[in-house]
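Milestone M4 deliverable, item 7.
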Amino acid sequence: MFAIKNLTPADLDFIRKHLVQQTIEKNVVLFEAGKNGDSMYFVEAGTLKIVDRRSKDGSDDHVIAVVKPGGFFGEEVILTEGGVYKDTVVSLEPCVLYKLSHDCLQKIMLESTLTGTKLVLGISKNYREAINISEQHGKLIALVSAKDGVGKTTVCMNLAEAFSRRGKKVLVIDCDFQLGNCHMHVASPATPNIARLVQLEERLTFDRISKFIITKSDIHVLSAPDLPQDAELITRSHLNQIIQECTRHYDFVFLDVGCHIDEISILFWDTADQIIMVQKPDLTDLTRFKRLMTVIKRLNYPKEKFVGVLNQFESKKSGYLEQFKSLLPIEWLKIAADRETVETALFNGETIIAHASASEMVLDIDKLCQHLLLEKNIDIKEKTGMFSWLKNYFSGS
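Output delivered:
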């Protein structure tokens, strides 16, 4: 019934007798942020979302969490003075809930102090996990390219190592959910991974997420699913929660974003403090990048959000640099081509920095690292959401 450890079947039966069952339909707002209340809820059946509601009609809700059967929410009004809900909760489907009020909790404590204490400790543990976190957020950096095969993942993993060697706490999230291979750069299996995380963990708090993060050479990696079909398990809501939790615990979180345009990739573009456009100096890349920019320009991001990188660069292809600059007039950095070193490092399951620290490619990655560390955090006052993007895109504005 409840996702609370240490409650025996007898405890559950006893608690259930004191709760009030409530049935609600789909799309019901159970309570709103800032409203007074005296009850929390346990989910028996159905699913609800906890949201930061930015518009009255809920058209651009920021999903904080999804609560499934066995979960609970609204515990802040039980555990804190004042009885004010901190978030808005909306049903995603018909639900059966059990309501625990202040009065009910007092009756449970009076009749069985042991069971009541277990209950309070269980719900307060979840609440402490949510509030006992520094408000300082790390920087979120998304690596994006117009097509596969440009070395984006190689740049991502080596950039993470460069940051780590400067004493930064770094996480890489492999966001190519069908065919990602960040784990290969640190000689790790693809399990545990993000698909197992969302399957097995009801509440995506950092202590649970951390169990699925692998650590090699001081780089922390949350791997993509080992099976392409498992990409369907990962939702926008899951990713919102994971990003929110991880940026509270890392100095930098790198997102290795897949090479396609959908609501998930746009979520990454929206939430990133900085987007590194990793491209290769050839005609195919230039053509696809031009098409990608027709979409990105509609999102009205400030130029300061972008850093350009021409990977696998050779002097004989320097003419492409101006072409890319004309499409995205920002600073573009170059990373030298060194195919043999890249392949050898990958075969050995290590980063290029670890394998050939004095190579020209490593020196270029180091320059990129320094450039990013000198950049100021960008304050995007209003980030374009998926609904706004669709409206602008199809209206042609």
